[in-house]
Design brief:
homodimer, DNA-binding
Chain lengths: 201, 201
DNA sequence: ATAATTACATACGCAGCGTATGTCAATTGA
DNA sequence: TCAATTGACATACGCTGCGTATGTAATTAT
């Protein structure tokens, strides 16, 4: 039989490299992942890596882009499940916290990503998951459900709080219990932004 | 004259290494700082480094400990300048944001530190600057000025928000303007935690 | 059919790290 | 006071891992 078209082979090669790198970065961290090792694991060499991604860093960018797309899709799925916009927003944030509990996301997106690529805000494709939060907040403000003067700024703060919450949870002795505390405190924090804020929780 | 006592010489050596490493880590980042280079800059060799700190990572820990102590002292100084406890707390948070604007703090404490040592919450000496925020919040709650069920959890969220805010500011095109937005949004966020929350800012 | 480009693999050199070892001064003990 | 020992470094060595330069076979263009 005739071989697959070339473009498809290339896409496969790139996908293999991204997958192998993602696994290695997630398992041992970016710095400890040997290019020779994980390219060999994918049946390739460093030559392919440099050709397609320019280097280790370029490959990390590709991995991050992939993970970010998955996260964004998951977040959108969460908020879509709630008819009440406010509740949708809150659960979206909670979903963000919970995703960041996954070791791969933590290691790659929260630790190595910022350290290697500089901080996330000037990544080529500014993380979709932050944009997602911003958009949700903007909608709430437009609907008069949130009393916030600057939705974008607030969204950034909120995403920062979520991120920190998940780091905290993931490294506590009792993640279950800590998760409950963090989510509760987080909901309280958001409640303060709501129109007509009924302060006692 | 007789030489200085040995213990003093040792302290000097350690201090020289920490200072040289701090400068190098802050300037080019942990990964790009060559041990040979910056030890030579301090008039020493890698031998001294391994002897005193066990390795590059141990030296990073020492640098972080030093910076964290400075940050904590500065934060305490800030909150002490305000007689109103609530205002003191707010300004302490703002101070945290502003400190994180300094490239050295950003690079070492916020980017490389977490990536190399794992996330901050299980660092040997859990960052004093976070503890400082927690204590301030606890006092506010005790005074009935803040309506928060779990001060520690809330302090972590707040510090996460501050941290993110400073990353945002530092990388914006117009740090001045962004800083104003971030601080404003941040104050609004905190306002929501206040007892009797008057929501409109 | 031949030229040019693409998609990799191979080969090479070098920087940076960790360890093993050496050395000299300072302290300790009799 | 004078070994003996410990501590504080420097030196030497080998190895890993990265980036680049080069090679080569397959595809595409002319």
């Amino acid at each position: 039989m005739a071989h697959k078209p070339r473009s498809e082979m290339i896409a496969e090669t790139r996908a293999k490299l991204v997958a192998a790198a993602r696994e290695a970065f997630g398992r041992v961290g970016y710095a400890n992942a040997s290019m020779d090792d994980f390219t060999a694991g994918a049946g390739l060499t460093r030559g392919a890596l440099y050709h397609h991604f320019g280097g280790k860093q370029g490959l990390l960018e590709a991995v991050i882009t992939q993970i970010d797309a998955e996260m964004t899709a998951r977040l959108n799925g969460v908020s879509a499940r709630f008819s009440d916009p406010w509740q949708g927003f809150v659960e979206e944030c909670v979903g963000y916290i919970e995703m960041a509990l996954e070791p791969e996301i933590q290691r790659i997106m929260l630790l190595d990503g910022p350290a290697v690529l500089g901080n996330p805000f000037n990544w080529p494709n500014q993380p979709g998951c932050i944009r997602s939060l911003t958009n949700s907040l903007k909608r709430l403000v437009a609907d008069g459900q949130a009393d916030v003067a600057d939705p974008e700024a607030t969204a950034r703060l909120v995403s920062g709080a979520s991120l920190h919450a998940s780091l905290w949870i993931a490294n506590s002795d009792d993640p279950e219990a800590t998760s409950k505390r963090a989510v509760a405190a987080f909901k309280r924090l958001l409640e303060g932004l709501r129109t007509g804020a009924p302060s006692s929780g």
